[in-house]
Write a structure and sequence with these properties.
Strand 6 and strand 7 (173-178) form a beta hairpin. This protein has helices at residues 10-20, 22-39, 49-52, 54-61, 63-76, 80-93, 182-186, 199-209, 213-226, 281-295, 303-310, 359-362, 383-387, 389-394; strands at residues 2-8, 99-104, 114-121, 139-146, 152-157, 165-168, 173-178, 233-238, 243-248, 253-258, 261-265, 333-341, 351-356, 369-372. Helix 5 packs across helix 6. Helices cover 34% and strands 22% of the residues.
């Protein structure tokens, strides 16, 4: 995995990201267009003014995000139109699946919140290089310090402005996942007319500018009242005191607050459960299992135990287990994971655990996982993780069941 450390304004941070992850961005852009053409885009869409239109990008993502994308394009020698398209349509072509487990208060060994996210993605039928599926995204770890915001760490796909999960120096944690609803299954988006928000970009905004989970949730819900998420989904913001869980579909929003106990979110709604796709068995199976694991561990949930949950194969190993496996390349399977433990008394010392590759394997391989806090520097990360060798070595659909 590449580690990108940057500071300054949006263009400067985007430029440093682009320069550090140039090859990975080129890989992701190429694979994005290959995957997009297989879904619903034609060759004409690549030169469509929709992706050349900087005003559109500014309206959807905001001026700072547009400047970040300009920096990404400049630093990586990519076309700005390709960077805009990648960020604009990625959520339709290859949405983030994922399982999120949150424990806090009486449920953890320290009384402080701990958040787990397993990140899942679709794949393809062809390989590209040793250990790479063609449409699998190359991920980078970000460590950013905006001029006008909070220092934060996160995981992102190279070339994208959003993050899959992250934590800032004040101990505000974020995660997110898509929700498989009937509307999503039946909706065929017109890419020339879509005006919608990206969950990963909203996560970045939350940890960049919010001092608490409540503030992050207010910031995000205010934007969702103006325009919905591009696909139905969940957003989670957690700090030392509270967790806020936002569910948003095309025409409604619901928010839950938690200050003690546990909660799980997979690829389904719980507050808006009437919208769920009844044929989506995997999400139901993982939701039930996540609640079984959390409910039976009152007072004993630690980061180490969350890592064990990340590797869990009940109902599998397969697409119905928390650690997801499948040899069908269309299936959404686990590619990485993070456990974020908030230090209530010293947020900058909060722990951010990562693993690269299949959780049941990667958490056990010394060169595939690491832990950092907000005082960390990029050189603290092993070289194999910076280069991506760890991910290539250990990404597999085979399961360790011992």
């Amino acid at each position: 995995m590449n580690i990108v450390s940057s500071e300054g304004g949006p263009f400067e941070r985007g430029f440093q990201h682009g320069r550090s992850a140039r090859d990975a961005i080129a890989h992701n852009v190429t694979n994005f267009w290959s995957a997009a053409s297989a879904y619903f885009l034609t060759s004409r869409d690549r030169t469509n003014n929709n992706f050349q239109n900087r005003k559109l990008a500014s309206e959807i993502f905001g001026d700072d995000a547009l400047e970040y994308m300009k920096g990404l394009a400049t630093g990586s020698n990519a076309k700005l139109s390709d960077i805009i398209a990648l960020n604009y349509l990625r959520q339709f072509v290859s949405p983030d699946e994922c399982s999120v487990l949150i424990a806090m208060g009486d449920w953890t060994t320290t009384g402080s919140p701990i958040v787990l996210k397993n990140s899942d993605k679709i794949g393809s039928d062809k390989f590209k290089g040793s250990g790479f599926h063609r449409f699998k995204e190359i991920n980078v770890a970000l460590l950013e310090e905006p001029d006008d915001g909070h220092k934060f760490a996160g995981i992102a796909a190279a070339g994208e402005i959003g993050i899959k999960m992250g934590m800032n120096e004040l101990g505000v944690v974020t995660a997110a996942n898509i929700s498989r609803t009937l509307d999503l299954r039946e909706k065929n988006p017109d890419v020339s007319k879509v005006r919608a928000l990206d969950r990963n970009a909203l996560q970045r905004k939350g940890v960049s500018y919010a001092t608490t989970s409540r503030e992050a949730s207010k910031l995000v819900t205010a934007e969702l009242l103006d325009q919905p998420m591009s696909t139905p989904g969940n957003l989670e913001f957690v700090d030392a005191e509270n967790a806020f869980l936002i569910e948003g579909s095309y025409d409604r929003i619901s928010v839950m607050q938690l200050s003690n106990g546990f909660v799980a979110r997979v690829n389904r709604f719980e507050l808006l459960s009437n919208l769920n796709d009844p044929e989506n068995v995997s999400s139901y199976a993982r939701y039930v299992r996540a609640n079984e694991l959390l409910s039976s561990n009152k007072g004993t949930v630690s980061s180490e135990k969350m890592i064990q949950f990340s590797k869990d194969h009940a109902n599998g190993p397969g697409i119905n287990s928390i650690c997801r496996h499948d040899n069908d390349y269309h299936s959404e399977t686990s590619l990485s994971a993070a456990v974020m433990e908030i230090n209530s008394s010293d947020p900058v010392s909060s722990k951010f655990y990562f693993c690269l590759g299949k959780p049941c394997i990667a958490w056990s391989e010394p060169d595939c996982h690491f832990v950092m806090d907000m005082k960390a520097e990029p050189q603290d990360i092993p070289e194999k993780m910076r280069s991506g060798e760890s991910w290539k070595l250990h990404y597999t659909e085979e399961a360790i069941t011992s």
